[in-house]
Structure formats: structure tokens, C-alpha cells
Amino acid sequence: MELIMRNMFQSLGKNTSANKLAKKYGLRFGASRFVAGESIKSAIEAVKRLNSEGKVVTLDHLGEFVYTEEEALESAAMCIQTLDAISEAGVNSNLSLKMTSLGLDISRELCMKNMRKILDRAKLHNNFVRIDMEDYEHCQISIDIYKELRKEYDNVGLVIQAYLFRTQQDIAHLNKLNANLRLVKGAYKESPSVAFPEKKDVDENYKKIIRQHLLNGNYTAVATHDETMIEYTKSVVSEHQIPKEQFEFQMLYGICEEIQARLVKEGLKVRVYVPYGVDWFGYFMRRLAERPANVWFVLKNLLK
């Protein structure tokens, strides 16, 4: 049953008709728990609150299903406005983005042009930009673009997914760049020809890449709500005397806030991934696909 629900929500997340319908009705039925509103103003207010709780943030202006150059330019402009708003408010947040929202599926040149504009503005504000990894179809080109951008910029990082067979090799190659990586399990539906189909295998590979990247001496953002993985990271850090400045834990807005608070109390760096914007539906569906508890939360809101 859980697998059926996961597949259903993952499919819905890619459905353009469902996305349009969701935009029409707005952030209702529980989506506001996971998305910090539709405007920059609401996002900055969320960042202020999280900063006051001792947490840092990465803001993501949500964008999917970009089909025209005009839409890609608008998305890039929103990323730049987000960086400006962070600087103006004086809050502690960097920026996450998806390159498909910047025109990657239209042309690589358009995407690179937009990325350079964003990274130039981030550099002006002494800020950092994280490139989110998307589905397997975009994996190699995302890594290739990251490598190209690293020749010009040192304020850019990448996300790497544990459920892919190729991941350990990718991290070995990225080590040459001293890459700042966010390590995640992975949230897209992928073929068993490229990704581990069993959770236990994904978990085992996740441990391997956490250890691999930490021992490479590069900055490691461990993005998980799994307490087993959090404790495993702590054990590697303790065993090898890895400084606190070399790693952080990342969690999603609205999820496992008790664990976030506990880690902050322990003196560990916690960064909360805060999405906002009108194009929130695909992100929301992936959150529902990941955790059955999220589905029951939404159903309770519907019953109210």
C-alpha cells in the first residue's frame, strides 16, 4: 500500500494539469506546513523565525515545468530577488535552486547564462548557492555544469543522491574540486537499472557516501530526518575528530522540528531547507511520497 501511494504522489508531482489545479486553489489542505508561502516576504519571515531558534536556512524559490525562455528568465530573476531580500533583511540564509527552472531543458547555454547571473549576485552579497539534483535524466549534465561553474566560482555547491549506483564514483571525481556537497537519499522515482530499489541498500550506500565525503575533508551537508543516519554521522565525526566547521545537518521546513531543536542544543549546525513560491505542487507531492505521516497530516486538514 505504501509503495502504491508513493508511486501515485510521484506521478502526480509531474502532472502539469494537477499542478495548474493546485495553483488555482493555493496553499491549502496542509501544504503550508511544508512551504513557507508564495511570496519572498513570507519566506523571509520564516527565515527570521528559524534564525531566532538558532538555525540557518537555505531558501528555494520553487519552479518546475519551465518550457519557455521567458519563464526561465523570470525564475532567474526571482532567484536574484531572493538573494537581494536575504541581504536586505540581514538574515542567515543561502539559496538553493533547480537548473530546470532556469531553462536547462531548453538549452544549456540559457541555463549557464542564468546561473552566472545568480552566482555573480550571490558573490556580491557574500552568499552561497546550492544546485539541487533532480531526476536521473538530469544527473550527468548537472554534474558537468557544476564542474564548469567551479572553474569560475567558489560559492556554489551541489546535491548528490545516495540511491543511485553511480554516486560513490561521482563523489570520488568531485573530490578533485573540494566540492561542497549536500548528501541526500533521493526522492525521485527511478529505474532499478540506475538506482537501488530496496531501502536497506539505499541506507547502506548513504552511510558509505557520508563517510567517504567527510574523510575526503570536504564540506558535508547531511540532509536527513533519519535518526540512525544522524547518529552514524556523529560517530564518524567523533571517530575521526572532524571539526564542526566541516559539516552540517539539513532538514526540510516543517519536518522533524524536535530533532532540529535537539541538534541545535547540542551545538551542531542545522540548516533548514525552506521552499516558497507559487509553483509548489511538485515539491509538495514529493514530500507526501516520502513519508506516510505527511499524508495523514494532510488528510486531517481535509477532515477539518
TrEMBL record:
Pathway: Amino-acid degradation; L-proline degradation into L-glutamate; L-glutamate from L-proline: step 1/2. Substrate binds at K98, R286, R287. One of its GO terms (molecular function) is proline dehydrogenase activity. FAD binds at M133, Q161, K185, G186, A187, K199, T224, H225. Binds 1 FAD per subunit. It is an enzyme of class 1 (oxidoreductase). InterPro entries: FAD-linked_oxidoreductase-like (IPR029041), PRODH_bac_arc (IPR008219), Proline_DH_dom (IPR002872), Proline_oxidase (IPR015659). Its EC number is 1.5.5.2. Keywords: FAD, Flavoprotein, Nucleotide-binding, Oxidoreductase, Proline metabolism. Residues 44-298 form the Proline dehydrogenase domain. PANTHER family: PROLINE DEHYDROGENASE 1, MITOCHONDRIAL, PROLINE OXIDASE. This is proline dehydrogenase. It comes from Neobacillus cucumis.
